[in-house]
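Hello Y.,

Per our agreement to keep a running log of every chain we model this quarter, I'm adding this entry. I've kept the format consistent with earlier entries: sequence first, then predicted structure.
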Amino acid sequence: MAGLLRKLMPKRFRKEGIVIPVVRLQGAIMTGGSQFRPALNLASTAQVLEKAFSFKDAPAVAISINSPGGSPVQSRLIFTRIRELAREKQKKVIVFVEDVAASGGYMIALAGDEIIADPTSIVGSIGVVSGGFGFPELLKKIGVERRVYTAGENKVILDPFQPEKEKDIEYLKTLQLEIHQVFIAMVRERRAGKLKDDATVFSGLFWTGTRGLELGLIDGLGDMRQELKKRYGSKTKLELVTPARGLFGRRIPGISSSLEGAASGFAAGLVETAEDKALWSRYGL
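Predicted structure for the entry above:
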């Protein structure tokens, strides 16, 4: 009878072994999101993180990261939330890198008390990048005149429909340098005593997990299941924490009941997919 009751109890309350909650953070980091391009940001992860850190008897929370980066703001927000919860709930955070934790993905990984990666994972890319397209010549060819009215001389800097201006580029670079310094400070603080004195670390380069270990960007090589069982015993159980669903399942964001909405959503999805592919392909993925 006791055995039957134990089986009916939720896994986290069974005393058969330690249960480690697992959170999987996957994808490009950005605000918003759609059915075509699920976004990794604080809004999409806050609930799952809160749930994972609420496991009362768990000594640690395992976080799996697979992200090529994206918004520095959302990356820092997720990083900050993880550290706040770790302090509040007194849990150790162990981060496991899958294919890639680069740029903003690596910034989130810094929230881990330890970072473990596969030897072939990609880590690093501690830098800042901005990109876009320019169309001034295209407008001339198709006979379109660009008209913009502003209050404030710098309101339309970096307008893709106007020729680039040197002062606009210089201003953008000052912003990038400021963000880069924030990123560098985070790495120095979180990897203090581990980071190697190598000039390339903050250059924006990225490395395999093997080289990342040599540079002090990560703490070890391995996979989640084996590592956690080695630390907490062979009976350790991993429980993937997922978002709560409504009565009829999670609502797909961005769905429109009109044909016009569906068509525009599909077109936007194609652009988003191309941008997503560009982010991942930078790391050969």
